[in-house]
Amino acid sequence: MALSSQRSFHSLSATHGATGRFQWPAIKPHWMALISAIALTGLYNFPFYSAIEQYVGFEQPMLMVKLVFLLLLVNHLLISLFSVRFALKPILIFLFFSAALSGYFMNAYGVLIDKHMLQNALETDVNEVRGLLSSGLLIHMAIFFVIPLVVLSLIRVTWPVGLRKVTHWLAPIAIDMALILVLALTSYQEMASTFRNHRDIKDLVVPVNSVAALASVGNRVAAAQFPREYQQVGLDATVSLPVAERTKPNLVVFVLGETARADHFGLNGYERNTTPELSQLAREPGGKLVNFPQVSSCGTATALSVPCMFSWLGRSDYDEGLAKNSDNFLDVMTRAGIVSTWLDNNSGCKGMCDRIPTIRPEDTELCQGEYCDDLVLLKGAHEQLDAADNNDHFMVLHQLGSHGPEYFKRSKPDQKRFLPECESNELQTCDQETIINAYDDSILVTDHLLAETVRMLKSMQSDYNTALVYVSDHGESLGEGGIYLHGIPYMLAPEAQTHVPMVMWLSDGFRVDNRIDAECLAQAGLKPLSHDNLFSSMLGLMNVESETVKPSLNIFEDCRTQ
Questions:
Q1: For 81, what's the count of Cα atoms within 13 Å in the CB-facing half-sphere?
Q2: CA-atom Rg of the chain in angstroms
Q3: Residue/partner pairs of 153-156 with CB below 8 Å, 24 or more apart
Q4: Quick check: 541 and 466 in contact, CB under 8 A?
Q5: pTM score, two decimals?
Q6: If residue 221 lies in a helix (H) or strand (E), which one and from where to where?
Q7: Residue 143, by phi and psi: left (phi above 0), alpha (psi -120 to 50) or beta?
């Protein structure tokens, strides 16, 4: 009897093998799952704890305890589902990695982890990823991932055999589900109210948020393997005012902005004059500059906003799969005989230029190091338009703009007006004033790009009636409320991420030939607008008639002269 007890003790807790070498204790899989769930819940969820302290408060201590206990149960249930031989450790490695990585960005930038944020991350390019790497991230990952990884590799798991392995797997799952059910039955009203009134809480739950986001993106990828039938729109598209009835063909340059927020545009009344060149253009003869101060974006990240901007779907009806598998306004223009071209200095067109000529301009002087100056787009545009023809042209310039977090890299030394700048990608370590300085300098660079674009268009007026349209894809948070960058779910996003600048410049020849009343347009521009207006308005600007053009969304509809 004593011998049997001694053997049992050594089998569970001995730390030295037969060779005398140190060995970590062997534990049962359900203990591994429980310890891991406690670690993930306790050490990786500080944003969640801060949120429930803010939303619930210590006035309701029992509700706070229930929410934390619910998080523990969910994490334990998630791990227990994979507590089988050859799966448990790989799953735990993935969970600790995703928890460590998402935890860093949630703590450092105040972002939320959901399917749109993950999609945006997956569609980014190498330079953007490099811009997020920092010593702080490496230290964080060393502490919160590498150390757990080493511990997981050393711990030995003893697996039950026979029928016991089934009961050992099912029992924790059944207990978790039963306790979750008890919580739901006894505390549904107060917990449901908390989650309903504060929808961001679910995106703060680590690592469940990453798993849910990955599952959603994985579902989209799987669905893409069985694509729905491609949907054409605007099959009846024609140009109502053909070139033959005008003195010259039209050339419209559409500058697709990046990460610009409307309240940091000088044209919109910002205390700093971040748009001095556009302001000067507004006073010069030869064209009309129209500002649109009340424009809302379709999304808070490029991966969602760009397809939505060009799609015939509005924000409320937006479906990514349908938007990327159907015609956008560039396709409709092409069908009507307008030459459409896309020039890119960003992370790609998100499927919107798949059926038109696409160019990534390069230049040894303008492309140095990781990035190209946005002026490279104008060089590419010149090359495309050198040979004038008798066709209408619509050209998209997708700029790098104010992409963060390294705003200071978006401007050259001689372009920096607001100093000192934050020169780190760890924005949380900088004074907010220095972050804003670097960001505002990047807006100055966009101002210069737009002014140079207008100057280029003025130089082409012997061959074309020219116009410029500029609108940003989404805005940016600069530390307000501890939030940085963008990508917050739309219903929770601050206005800084959804209120975007929009500007048009129409040459006198363009306005006359295309019968546009500039003063009427200026008045229309004062009304609240959104990315939803772009599809019908850009087709309307190019005189495209089609049943797919909605007059109520076409800002030019009531501003045509006879």
A1: 8
A2: 28
A3: 153/89, 154/24, 155/24, 155/25, 155/26, 155/27, 155/32, 156/23, 156/24, 156/25, 156/26, 156/27
A4: no
A5: 0.82
A6: helix 208-224
A7: alpha
